[in-house]
Amino acid sequence: MNAATSSPSLYAPPRLSARWFPVWQRNFLVWRKLALPSILGNLADPLIYMLGLGYGLGSMLPEVAGTSYVAFLAAGTVCASTMNAATFEALYSAFSRMHVQKTWEAMLNAPLELEDVMLGELIWAATKSLLSGCAILTVIFVLGLSHSPLALGVLPVILLTGLAFAALGLIVNALAPSYDFFMYYFTLFITPTMLLSGVFFPREQLPALVQGLTEVLPLTHAVQLVRPLLQGQVPANALLHVAVLLAITAVAFLVALVLTRRRLLR
């Protein structure tokens, strides 16, 4: 791959440009052919959680954190759906294009750098997570679980959360020898993240040590932004949560770039 082998160093600063957009556009045009099944697929899992647990388990619970359990769970479901959509795209789809279909190799024979390809993949995965999050958000409004105009502030949070998890996914993508490798990531990171970040219950129920550890999880910061917004409140420490998500995105993308360069130079 000419673009990869011409890099002066594995650790050279990324040369970012607007050439990521054709990569994003290519992925969008492919996805558009199966857009409806894709959106419905992204809706099914979070809807089962929200309706099954929210109305089923929620009917046996008192208010949680000052609201009904289904409303509490709805905010976490938006964030978890965003995480899953971005992760699946950055893992399975990106791995297929990089390793199986050799799409990345074809694009790198065009006047594109590896940075352009990976940035296009990053933004495309975040875009898919935004579509998934918007679908869940629409259901929340239809069910009457949120009425505040502040809920529209959830949209940029969804995008930012998608970027963070897409960047983390690209790290795993660079390390994976096969699709089976991704199960370790889901089992050891994604599932614990969903269980410990305040999606299903308040983090205050966790031991103090575990609560402290969950502060490094991107989903924790996403939930702490989304839940107040859906309730019509301005999130506390909003700038801190946004800064953490941005930092995770930037650092993870740089690590993914270095690891991908190393993989392509083997």
Question: What is shown here, in short?
Answer:
The chain has 266 residues and is an all-alpha fold.
Q: Mind sketching the topology for me?
A:
Blueprint: H1 2-5, H2 20-32, H3 35-57, H4 69-100, H5 103-108, H6 114-142, H7 154-175, H8 182-196, H9 208-214, H10 218-230, H11 238-264
Kindly describe this structure.
The protein is mostly helical and 266 residues long. It is built from eleven helices and no strands. It has helices at 2-5, 20-32, 35-57, 69-100, 103-108, 114-142, 154-175, 182-196, 208-214, 218-230, 238-264. Helix 3 packs antiparallel against helix 4 (69-100), helix 7 packs antiparallel against helix 10 and helix 10 (218-230) runs antiparallel to helix 11 (238-264). It is globular, with a radius of gyration of 19 Å. The N and C termini lie close together (11 Å).
Helix content: over 70%
Round the mean pLDDT to the nearest integer and report it: 89
Strand content: under 5%
Individual helix count: 11
**What string, H for helix and E for strand, traces the elements in order?**
HHHHHHHHHHH
Q: Report the span from N to C terminus.
A: 11 Å
3D shape: globular
SSE class: mainly alpha
**Spans of 5+ residues with little confidence (pLDDT < 50)?**
1-8
Number of strands: 0
Cα-atom Rg, whole angstroms? 19 Å
Taking the sheet with the most strands, its summary is: none
